[in-house]
Amino acid sequence: LPIKHAQGPPTTPILGNIPDMLFGPGPEVNLKRIFNEYGPVVKLFTFSTEQRLVSDPIDAEVVARESEYFTKEIRFPFSVTKCLGGDGLFTSSTSDPHWELAHKLLMPTFSPKAIKNYTHEIFNITIALKKIFDTFAKDGTPVPLNHHMTNVTFESIGRVGFGYSFHVLDTPDALSHPFLEAMGYCLGELINRMLTPDFVKAMPLPANKKFNNSIALMKKTVDEVIAARKSKPKGEKENKDLLDFMLNAADEHGTKMPDGLIRDQVITFLIAGHDTTSNTLTWAIWLLHQNPVWLKKVQDEVDGLHWSLDNPEQMDVSKLSIVERVLKETLRMHPPVQRISKVCKKDTVLPSGYFVPANTNCVISANALHNNPDVYPEPQNFNPDRWLPEEESKRSPFSWLPFSIGARGCIGRQFAMLEAKIVLATIVRYYHFLIPGAENVKPLTSSAIRKATPFNIKFFNREVG
Ligand code: HEM
Questions:
Q1: What distance in angstroms lies between residue 269's CA and the mean position of ligand 1's atoms?
Q2: Which residue CA neighbors atom 39 of ligand 1 most closely?
Q3: Which pLDDT tens digit goes with each residue over 307-334?
Q4: Ligand 1 geometric centre to CA of 141 (Å)
Q5: One-letter-per-residue 3-state SS of 47-104
Q6: CA-CA distance, 267 to 224, in Å (whole number)?
Q7: CA-CA distance, 107 to 31, in Å (whole number)?
Q8: pTM here?
Q9: Which residue among 410, 413, 418, 450 is best mutated to probe the pocket of ligand 1, counting the most ligand atoms within 8 A of its Cβ?
């Protein structure tokens, strides 16, 4: 086949293709138009960097995997994320020995056996959430759903990962933890910081001060989490959780993680471990609200299993198959991480025939991949039956990449799915819900993670047989 060269919209001076992405109907619609016009691999020029965006599963397979051709490398403009995650797993290059060491040491904490051990604590956290929702159901107060989903997922990673409570589920009116405010601010500033020269970032401007104070607050929270564990009497230290592994595990040469790296990993897990799952839950509940036929199917499933928080040890989460399909379809339609960024190590011809020169940033667009009508007929429709085993097996595993895949795929994938299943099953089992103005909910295009425009929800108690 002849080699093809990716095309893209003409560039403007300095800003490159940024206006093509940001202006008008917003990045998602713009990108769809660009793919329609220029083909499955497009060339864009942003932040003074040339990149390729891919949207086809056959190309995603090659780009997603670590290989002699592609790798995850933290370089400009993504290097600005280092000010949050430092050398933590998410924000380090595959070639970085810190990544290799942490990957090796931490993988066992996410093995299926380890995840199973976390189930008990996730149930405890869900019980605390139910207590809160019961008070809302009693007085019919509309409440911001994402705030509560964020509190539950943040508390989970704190308690399950680090044996530390942020106390955000102690009372129904608990505010967000200051860490979340600081993190939200910093994530929102990242694009600005990509566009700002280093010397301006070093100036004593109010925006820089706020950014630096937010980072300092996040580090302080992490120091408290680590100090709380270190101060526990010896007998109580055997938690065998993520933090325990970080503090004690060593590789075959006896190398342990240095303190600074542990701090980076704790911040990384606090960030990566909650916002993604909370937004998935928020979208799933909204999608069920908008699709009553599917809501009924999920209710029938949880009722049939007599899903109950009264005897969690008897609940078999693996039986929640419709709940799981709903979550997979939610992640297809609303992948929290919308761009998976890699770097091409040497000249490559992708399976679709497009040439990618060495040293080019190459991005898999999860939105484009998940909305490809050749792979997902009527992609705009919510249809969890796409995830029936016989349907799923017809598709390439590279046509659904909300967690990416391979060595740099999400280490917390099983944990996230376990948590989301338990929380969603519980909400559907114990409550009816109503979202006033649900039809106006849209994706928020400006955020790094795919969020819904904030909305309120009303809970009503449901007869549980
Ligand atoms: C990596 C998605 C939940 C921890 C990733 C990546 C994606 C992703 C796409 C790869 C990013 C890249 O290539 O740059 C998600 C989604 C989640 C979720 C959609 C929930 C629905 C979690 C949870 C944790 C977690 C619960 C922690 C308990 C991480 C870490 C990495 C990662 C540490 C970096 C792994 C590495 O490169 O070695 N996640 N994630 N994630 N995720 Fe998740």
A1: 9
A2: 410
A3: 999 989 899 999 999 999 999 999 999 9
A4: 34
A5: CCEEEEEECCHHHHHHHHCCCCCEECCCCCCHHHHHHHHCCCCCCCCCCCHHHHHHHH
A6: 12
A7: 35
A8: 0.96
A9: 410
